[in-house]
Write a structure and sequence with these properties.
alpha/beta, 6-stranded parallel sheet, 5-stranded parallel sheet, 15 helices, 15% strand, globular
């Protein structure tokens, strides 16, 4: 079974969901190749605004990610009609993006562009199989029953990193992609800073100062993906705030998992997948501003507690290495191939 994997980007999502799992499957001896976005050469045959054909696809299984473009969404059904298995991977509920997130304007159907979350929905309805990062996304993109959960796992670069303990509180995230999430913390961060705490970010902090009630944006800035694990590991006490929204209900455990693997003790909102990781033995949850303040303060003031949570987090993350779980991707792609083979050609042609 020959599989070709097409990451949507060369950054976090494309790496975690596509490139790294594809490379791990190839290293395990499977016939899997990963095509970087800059090297993608899929050719479509158009008739007006309708895709009539897809050329030069030499694979049994094609794996696409976050199919937001109108033509690529149409191409999913065209490839299936030719007998090619098509897997579509989605890791966020794009229809529920916060309007203040720059991605909202790009993906809103009324934006006038070629990209839309409706195209993702079409691609998922038509795909041989939809893979998602959380169970909640099955209800969004795979109500037809052809869905498969692939949780996020971490490559080896996250493990065994050197770490210096400190009481510096940090958020490994960018404010522009989390515009309403600081509100769940209330005044907790501002209160800690007033008491002398250092607060930093790993990611774009523009606008975060005001959101957290600070006099200025905290220190931070964009970090290249290969430097990201070390940047996370540099935090003394980590935090992962998520507002209680439909979008966040489907978010994966990736953020606190990264901190766990890097040995960073963390406090997080009680969203579904964060609770799942916490129940495995990692981190602390906070459901209201006063709890955020109390738990962050406890960690700031106790090197012993930081060490205990650091060790516990590393132990949990050890069981969530990608190299030990890449078989799950191969299993999903094999399931997709079997579903495709079991679907009558006549049904595919009229889908």
């Amino acid at each position: 079974m020959k599989v070709i994997v097409f990451p949507a980007d060369a950054f976090g999502c494309g790496s975690f969901r596509m490139r790294w799992p594809g490379e791990a499957c190839a290293a395990a001896g499977h016939d899997v190749s990963v095509v970087e976005p800059k090297d993608r050469r899929l050719k479509v045959v158009m008739e007006g605004d309708t895709v009539k054909g897809v050329l030069d696809v030499d694979a049994d299984v094609v794996v696409l990610q976050r199919v937001t473009h109108a033509y690529m969404a149409q191409a999913v059904g065209v490839m299936r009609a030719k007998g090619i298995t098509v897997v579509v991977d989605v890791d966020d509920d794009l229809s529920s993006i916060h309007p203040s997130n720059p991605a909202w304007e790009v993906h809103h159907p009324g934006s006038g562009g070629m990209h839309s979350w409706r195209n993702v929905a079409l691609a998922c309805r038509t795909a041989s199989l939809v893979t998602v990062s959380t169970p909640a996304l099955l209800d969004v993109y795979a109500r037809h029953g052809r869905g498969h959960v692939l949780h996020n796992y971490l490559p080896d670069m996250y493990y065994g990193l050197p770490r210096t303990d400190s009481d510096t509180v940090g958020w490994p995230g960018s404010y522009h992609s989390h515009p309403n999430d600081p509100e769940v913390v209330g005044g907790a961060v501002a209160r800690l800073v007033d008491e002398g705490a250092s607060f930093v970010m790993r990611g774009d902090p523009t606008g975060a100062g005001r959101a957290f009630g600070l006099a200025a944006d905290p220190a931070g800035g964009p970090v290249p993906i290969d430097e990201w694990p070390a940047a996370v590991a540099s935090l003394g006490v980590g935090m992962a705030p998520l507002a209680d929204t439909k979008f966040n209900a489907a978010k994966s455990w990736l953020k606190p998992l990264e901190m766990s693997a890097a040995g960073v003790p963390w406090v997080a909102s009680p969203r579904a997948e964060y609770r799942r990781l916490h129940e495995m033995g990692a981190g602390v949850l906070a459901d209201r501003p006063r709890t955020w303040y109390r738990e962050l303060k406890r960690l700031r003031e106790s090197p012993t507690l930081r060490a205990e949570l650091s060790e516990a987090g590393r132990a949990v993350a050890e069981g969530l290495r990608l190299r030990d779980n890449s078989w799950r991707w191969q299993e999903a792609w094999t399931r997709a191939y079997e579903l495709q083979q079991a679907t009558p050609r006549q049904q595919l042609a009229t889908a």
